[in-house]
Amino acid sequence: MTSNTELVKHRFAQELTRCCASHFKTIPSNEQFARDFFLSSKYKMKVSRETVRKWFKGESFPDLDHFLHLIDWLSLDTTNIFPLLATQSANHLPAHLEYLNLEGIEKITPKQIDAFASLLSALKKSNIVVIKKIHK
Predict the structure, then answer these.
(1) What predicted TM-score, i.e. pTM, was given to this entire model?
(2) In terms of CB atoms within 10 Å, which of 1, 73, 74, 102 comes out highest?
């Protein structure tokens, strides 16, 4: 694990395994996880068994939509994945976005916005997300 990206993938795999052990009381099969992921997203997001396998092995990282759903569904602790989140604020921002409900977007608090901004900042610094400039 020489790169920051590989380290984040590895930490994500560890946190996913930890949260699944807590949520399912065991580590589910890739097929069961993919099915439950789809059902927990209210039939909006699909993920393949192969993608799930790569997540658990630390070979890939989910896209932002899938990642945010995993945070909400399994209560992933982002400070375990992105250590910068733990040290960014003396106010100790929440470790996961359990209270960020996008359906009630008009009721989002400044604290929720700060937590989300910290998550996006950590994603950017991890090199997992590539920022592309769009030229018009």
Answers:
(1) 0.65
(2) 74
